[in-house]
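Protocol step 6 of 9: fold each sequence in the batch and record its structure tokens directly after the sequence line. For illustration, a two-sequence batch is reproduced in full.

Sequence one:
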Amino acid sequence: MRSILTPMTRTSLLRLALGLLLTTTLTSCGSTFGTAWKKAPDTNSVEGRWEGTWQSSTSGNRGQLRCAVDKPLPGSHDILDYVSADGRVSSPRPRCFYYHATWNGAASGSYTAFHDVQRLKDGSIVFKGEYLRPKWAGGLNHYEGTIKGDEFTACYQSATDRGTYSMKRVR
């Protein structure tokens, strides 16, 4: 008996199943993002709420993106302490970045990543970090970005995708 599923139909069904699995997996983290979004402080530093878009340069997919960046953990130094009086920059400090993204308006999900954050002499803030997704979702993702004033730009890359984030501070 011949299969009524063509290769194109099988591919479409596989993508749909993968999308549904991704949606149900990532949305379970939504309550963490919601809490972080509500608690994020309003500052002129890296902490706070950010909103904008992401776009994959590999697939062309895009969506809305929000990020809440938490204050330093109690007992750790604030980012403003990272630049010495003579302008030297000390080692980067990790911060928790809570992300919530939509995919082409059809699905959404949240995840949390730690990024090393560092203020440069010119006052801009740079960050980089990694986030481990399941292998089927690209595996290890690398992030690098810059915050200048109220502008947040970053790039990401994994084994299967790469793209950009562009956000503005939410007051």
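Sequence two, same batch, same settings:
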Amino acid sequence: MSAASGADSSPIGLVGRIVTASRGQDGPGEVELDIRGGRETFIAISSEPIALGDSVIVLADLGPRRVEVCPWDYPFASTLDT
């Protein structure tokens, strides 16, 4: 069986929910993403603080389990609660 394709395993562009608040430049938080057929938690790096429960979008993959995120306020973000 082959490994997941790059499109299946890349977190870039995914919308997730902050599960540990980010302090922006003062420290990372954690984001939960639906990826690779499951739900995984990644270290969330952001330029500004992001509160627990806020929606974010992944801008960049920074290496193993680390992603750059920014706030994401999109009308369909509430679908993340399902």
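Proceed to step 7 once all outputs are recorded. Observation for sequence two: DSSP finds one helix and seven strands in the chain.
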